[in-house]
Specification:
Layout lengths: L1 H31 L4 H12 L2 H12 L3 H26 L2 E2 L2 H20 L3 H4 L5 E2 L1 H23 L6 H8 L12 H30 L3 H13 L1 H12 L3 H26 L2 E2 L4 H13 L1 H7 L3 E2 L1 H19 L2
Antiparallel strand pairs: 1-4, 2-3
């Protein structure tokens, strides 16, 4: 069991390091060809920072480990809203701007609600709950709308867009000349992502078997937290700097990306069977997002330390509840 756990951790570390190497190499190469920082941020940064979740899910789908793929995406979204935002609020209160409630939050609620609606096949169709390829295509079409809105933010220079905030503040898009050949970084990134994904999936499934628990639990609370470390680190740094819009935008953007891109793309490779308790997981993810609405009106538009403690408590309580069922 210890060997499986250590190899699983090694796989997660490889995913994080390889994702960073891929973003740095690609950004440096794009800059060499004169591509603007805005385009780099919109494409390479946005997609590259979600590479760990994407690689894990595609590898899991190919290996027919849909429970782990499902748990990784949904668990990452729950961890972002409960764990990451909770810790960021403890470091420094996170302000919720009106623009966020008017546009970004509805996008997140829509993404979460659509995935939830497509997972209740037993009620709607009387069949087993599954996210098939047709579901994946529909969700990806919604992602195209999100991407279109983001493109307008970047090239129209609108203030406060999800990806625009990331583009302007992410140091990758303003990288100094690298001493290492960017092609080497890209090769290391791709190779590391492939190897890390294999290690994560194989040892995650093995660890679940050795512990006698479902692989979806490993996906929800081990793999998901591991692949969410970039969001955690970014949000904590942003909170220390007082950049609450970046901390919140980072979490929301990641969740929308996971729900509208990573999960449906995985379903295109192989239909994802929603595991037992999966609909509850999706409902909890939606509830965490819904909880931000009354906080905006009642909590004076601020995630204070008390709210941060509450988010961490409910995340921990759900982890205990889910692991026992």
């Amino acid at each position: 069991m210890l060997t499986s756990l250590l190899l699983l951790i090694l796989g997660l570390v490889l995913l994080l390091v390889a994702g960073t190497a891929l973003v740095l190499g690609s950004s440096a190469l794009a800059a060499r060809f004169g591509v603007s920082p805005a385009v780099v941020g919109l494409t390479i940064v946005a997609f590259g920072t979600s590479a760990p979740e994407l690689v894990v899910n595609i590898a899991a789908a190919i290996k027919d480990q849909s429970a782990l793929a499902f748990g990784n995406v949904v668990g990452s979204n729950i961890a972002n809203l409960g764990l990451v935002l909770g810790i960021a609020a403890l470091v420094r209160p996170v302000e919720i701007e009106g623009r966020f409630v008017r546009r970004e939050l509805p996008l997140l609620l829509l993404a979460s609600a659509v995935v939830l609606a497509m997972s209740i096949d037993p009620i709607l169709r009387g069949t087993a709950a599954i996210l098939d390829r047709s579901d994946g295509v529909v969700i990806l079409l919604l992602f195209c709308i999100f991407l279109y809105v983001s493109i307008l933010d970047v090239f129209g220079a609108r203030v406060g867009g999800i990806l625009l905030t990331e583009v302007e503040s992410n140091p990758v898009v303003h990288t100094k000349p690298l001493t290492m050949n960017p092609w080497v970084l890209i090769g290391v990134g791709i190779g590391g992502l492939f190897w890390g994904g294999q290690l994560t999936i194989d040892n995650g499934v093995m660890l679940a078997g050795e512990l006698g628990i479902s692989s979806v639990i490993i996906g929800l609370f081990v793999v998901a937290v591991g692949t969410s470390l970039p969001e955690l680190v970014t949000s904590i740094i942003a909170a220390f700097r007082g950049e609450s819009d970046l901390a919140l935008g980072n979490v929301v953007g990641s969740n929308i990306f996971n729900a509208l891109f990573v999960l449906p793309l995985s379903a295109l490779f192989r239909p994802i069977v929603v595991p037992a308790g999966g609909v509850i997981d999706l409902g909890v993810s939606l509830l965490f997002a819904v909880a931000l609405i009354p906080i905006f009106f009642i909590g004076k538009a601020k995630l204070g330390r008390t709210t941060g403690v509450a988010l961490l408590f409910f995340y921990g309580a759900y982890a205990v509840f889910r692991s026992m069922n």
